[in-house]
Amino acid sequence: MTAAETYTAEDHQAMMSTITGFWVSQLTATLAHLEIAEHLHDGPKTAARIAELAGSDPHATFRLLRAAVDPGLVSHDPETDCFASTSLLDRLRASAPDSLRNVALVWNAPLHWQAWGRFTECVRTGENQVGSAVGRSTFDYLAEHPVEADQFSRAMAELSTPTIREAVVAIEAGPGTTIVDVGGATGAFVLGMLAEHPGTDGLVLDLPHVTAAAEREIAARGMQERCRAVPGDFFEAVPEADLYLVKFVLHDWGDDACIRVLQRCRQAMRPGARVVVVDMVTGAPDDPGTAALMDLNMLAIAPGAREHDLADFDRFFAAAGLARTATTELSPPYCVLEVEAV
């Protein structure tokens, strides 16, 4: 049977949708930039009124909104000629529960966009192309572009929120437990644990320039008596504790660095302590799940970074003197991996 004989219109349309996927990504980012979700939150409006609120060209705004109907981002009423929000668009509203506004912005901003533009060369060489795309490393670039860096931090928090909500319920922590959020940024994970598990106390460990933000978040949640921010480098040392939270950390680093982080936890563990890794887990090649696509994003923007399967994690644990004792699946592709000293 020839390729022509196996051709279907459905395949053609599916491939067209795949090829033009980046158009929808940029459409979505533009909706976020123009705050369309906010403008439609209190009710339907005409394109002209939305353009007035957004400070955009009326005709171009109409064309944007018309295109947003097909992917379900807005709806249109032909009788009133008004566009209305949908539950999908509401994920782009900054104050919405589980908002993804900053994710839409940062993944379509210059750092990611230009790095992905060189992705073929990345696969050909096996080497990250961020340097050739933006002239410097990922974190050096973000240090020089504070607006994009702020969006990046907020995007990571948005991605973490649903996972943290599930994980804090899945992880046991009795009264008297000291919990360290390793590389915890603003401490959302450990603060969630403290709220869920009375009688526990916590520390947020991150680089010195991050601790001020963590202290503000701790104060905002009224947790000053139970939690504090500790400046440090998790490659060098971590505080003594009963429970270590390692969330979305290991995928940022190469194998040796992952093992080193876990070794530092192993060295500081109190008797009976646990390390809990929360991260994406890739499936088998015939059913890899969405983690495989995120793995390509790591390949595109972060040298040495990648998503891991369970065999990878177990290899890291063994090299650090640890062993996995429990695995709890969260919403795919995330898992809670609990490990103890051996």
Automatic annotation (TrEMBL):
Q: Which Pfam families match?
A: Dimerisation, Methyltransf_2
Q: What is this protein called?
A: Acetylserotonin O-methyltransferase
Q: Which Gene3D superfamilies match?
A: Vaccinia Virus protein VP39, Winged helix-like DNA-binding domain superfamily/Winged helix DNA-binding domain
Q: Which residues form the O-methyltransferase C-terminal domain?
A: 116-322
Show where the O-methyltransferase dimerisation domain sits: 16-78
Coiled-coil ranges (or none) = none
Q: Could you confirm whether the keyword S-adenosyl-L-methionine appears in this record?
A: yes
Query: What are the record keywords, sorted?
Result: Methyltransferase, S-adenosyl-L-methionine, Transferase
